[in-house]
Amino acid sequence: MAKVNITETVLRDANQSLIATRMPFSEFEPILKTLDKAGYYSLECWGGATFDSCLRYLDEDPWERLRKIKAACPNTKLQMLLRGQNLLGYKHYPDDVVRMFVKKSIENGIDIIRIFDALNDVRNIEVAVDETLKNGAHASGTICYTLSPIHNLENYVKLAKEIEALGVQSICIKDMAGIMSPKEGYDLVKALKENVKVPIVVHTHSTTGLGFMTLLKCVEAGADVIDTAISCFSGGTSQPATETMLYTLKQYGYDVPVDAAVCKEINDFFKPYRNEALKNGMLNPVVMGTQTDALVYQIPGGMLSNLVAQLTAQNKLDKLDEVLLETPRVREDMGYPPLVTPLSQMVGVQATANVLAGERYKNVTKEIKNYLKGEYGRAPGEVNKELQAKVLEGGQPYEGRFADTLEPGIPEAKAYLGDRATCDEDVLSYIAFPTQAEAFFEKREQRKKNTFTYSIKKVEG
Hints:
Elements: E1 5-8, H1 13-19, H2 25-28, H3 32-36, E2 42-47, H4 50-56, H5 62-72, E3 77-82, H6 95-107, E4 112-115, H7 126-134, E5 138-144, H8 153-164, E6 170-174, H9 182-195, E7 200-203, H10 211-220, E8 225-228, H11 242-251, H12 260-280, H13 293-297, H14 301-313, H15 320-333, H16 343-357, H17 366-372, H18 385-392, H19 410-417, H20 424-432, H21 434-460
Parallel strand pairs: 1-2, 1-8, 2-3, 3-4, 4-5, 5-6, 6-7, 7-8
């Protein structure tokens, strides 16, 4: 009987996809010990937007959150999502920063790091993979799945072999837009199982309605691990439901070591929070629906909501259809990058600028200029040479690994922060999100002063 493992995403991707990662630690702390006994392969609980959200919106130290989750879940592997040389941000960081971030993530409780590059440029995940392995954690190399004239089985197999050669212990197919069909999923997993030796993990979203069928066919093709979300936080732009996949796979005779009764406890716990989020508007019912337009435009759900918000803010929502048509054109000009963070935002913003200006590339965003200069890595296909020449003004794009041009980042950050940084983790928080981290440090210091003053008054009283 074939075994299939499950990664539960409610603490990270489901939370991020449905309520923009606004769930504070205090809300899910009571259920952590139950999550730990469900039998999950791993709990995806960190990375992605959780770090930013903790500092920016929740007034939490993301490192402390991780340590608390680890303490409550000693029996289950904790997993994070890392954007390779981009870490958790939108630009490349120096190697010393990447290495320290990976090392500290593992020291604070992470067991599995899923490492991807938005362009599938293997050079941009090498350092993160190497440091993960050096620190004894599981490095899961990632293929960002997309469709284009240059993305096919042959190229994906070639990419998988390059990733495997780095020494990763698994390879994840990351279908961020939920556009991988059951047939495409089956064919890809089958091809990878025939060509690489490491386990295959499949991550998709329910955005287009394909998710459940795709995961089932991927399992039939030999997938070893699938990502799912507990049912009340599943569907729409989130993942397919854990309980539904568990029920289905067990009927087909697969060995899935997850306890359905414990899943019910977990779901019952999160339901009131989900219902409250619906009432207060934090959870928009729209993101829980099915958006088949993504099959045409290949736009992830989060990217679509960003486009709507951007146009609404400028009172130009009537231009949405034009922007949706322009987005694939911009993507083609960029050499067909996968629409995943940060490329999805960059392409969407440029498409919007083109439509609103009434002229293509009248205004080229800073990020697109940097992309065309080669600062994000190697474009998957050929970029628009005319546009690139206009941006470079006669210069040449950088062909090497851009991180090699960056000076070390740790010493300067330490010197700037001084006593405000109480540990290396504080330094990393500042490097990743300077403004948000400094604001958090100030609040933290004020809380300490208030506590100290209160203690003195209590003693004097």
